[in-house]
Amino acid sequence: MVVAALTFLAERAGAERPPDGELPVPSMFSPVSVPADMIRELSLLVIGVAAGIFLAVAGVLVWCILRYRAKPGDDREPPQVYGSNQIELAWTIVPVLIVLVLFLATARTINDIEASEPPPGAVKVTIVGHQWWWEIRYPELGVVTANELHIPVSTDDARRPTYLTLESADVIHSFWVPQLAGKTDVIPNRSNRMWMEPRESGIFVGQCAEYCGTQHAKMLLRVIVHEPGGFERWVEAQRAPAVEDASVAAGRTVFQQTACINCHTLGGTVADGTFGPDLTHLMSRATIGAGAATNTRENLRAWLENPDHFKPGVRMPAMKLGDEQLDQLTAYLLTLK
Ligand code: CUA
């Protein structure tokens, strides 16, 4: 039943995402990262012990029901037994031992994961939870992005784990990419730590796992695990200045004269807000609105016209732009590779 419920939740989480190819189902039972492997092993032990207890209890119950059921013509009172020191000791000591084993195994896994210190070559990332998107900062690399976390794959030759510092700009969120690491809450005025060490490249999906307001369900994130060398190329592209394209000057003017600049940062313009995602390399991201829609021309224009269309209750207001301004602004944003 537990597995069925987890599968149901995983499928529902998948249903919220835009249909963009073959993203893996975010199941903690198919880990591709060191801490996620450790958590899966522990969960199998716990499920195994719980299944054993269930079978023993249900088996004895069924046996008693069948063996001692009323027989036709036998209406005698069964023997009445009061108290048994042996049985009472057994049903006290055995559960205590089982709980002790589960406690020790869990404490060991938690300690092994939490005691891990970043080796040289580790990538350091600060994640800030917002209603309802993820701010992603690489303080040592000078890169800021949103909703799509890029990290390197870790190999036996070159260990490249990623260490995350989790912070919140408003309420409690929870950062969870089931295939890469355990779930960690993101709490205002507190820095939490976690790490992931993927052994496979690819795209892995996660989402906010703590109810944080209207659009909690559309606070999705994806982790792009790069092949060796790919992460460095991505960082280089992110550090490059935004493209200056004369053909979209009208759109840049619309952007700079609208309230966009109060909430967003866009390198090379006057925009330096931090309330919303950094837009400098907007088109390097596959989705907009923290996974609410795929990042296409049509969706981008519809988003600018009315963000509520994809994400009712979203903090970004509709700017009441006319058709021509919307076209110009969309054309400008499309150049932000
Ligand atoms: Cu953020 Cu739920």
Q: Mind telling me the C-alpha Rg?
A: 27 Å
The rough form would be described as elongated
Termini Cα gap: 46 Å
Q: What's the overall average pLDDT, rounded? A: 89
Strand order of the largest sheet: 3-2-1-5-8
**Helical content class:** 25-40%
Q: Beta fraction of the residues?
A: 15-25%
N-to-C series of helices and strands: HHHEEEEEEEEEEHHHEEHH
Biggest sheet statistics: 5 strands, mixed
Quick rundown:
This protein is α+β, with helices and mostly antiparallel strands and 337 residues long.
Give the topology.
Blueprint: H1 2-15, H2 34-67, H3 85-114, E1 123-130, E2 133-138, E3 143-146, E4 148-152, E5 162-168, E6 173-175, E7 184-186, E8 192-196, E9 202-207, E10 220-226, H4 230-239, H5 249-256, H6 260-263, E11 287-288, E12 293-294, H7 297-305, H8 323-333
Dinuclear copper ion (CUA) is lined by residues 129, 132, 173, 208, 210-212, 216, 219.
What does this structure look like?
The chain is α+β, with helices and mostly antiparallel strands and 337 residues long. Strands 3-2-1-5-8 form a five-stranded mixed β-sheet. The protein has a three-stranded mixed β-sheet with strand order 4-10-9. A two-stranded antiparallel ribbon has the order 6-7. Helix content is 36%, strand content 17%. Helix 2 (34-67) runs antiparallel to helix 3, helix 5 (249-256) crosses helix 8 and helix 7 (297-305) packs across helix 8 (323-333). It has eight helices and twelve strands. The protein has helices at residues 2-15, 34-67, 85-114, 230-239, 249-256, 260-263, 297-305, 323-333; strands at 123-130, 133-138, 143-146, 148-152, 162-168, 173-175, 184-186, 192-196, 202-207, 220-226, 287-288, 293-294. The protein is elongated, with a radius of gyration of 27 Å. Bound molecules: dinuclear copper ion. Dinuclear copper ion (CUA) binds next to loops. Dinuclear copper ion binds at residues 129, 132, 173, 208, 210-212, 216, 219.
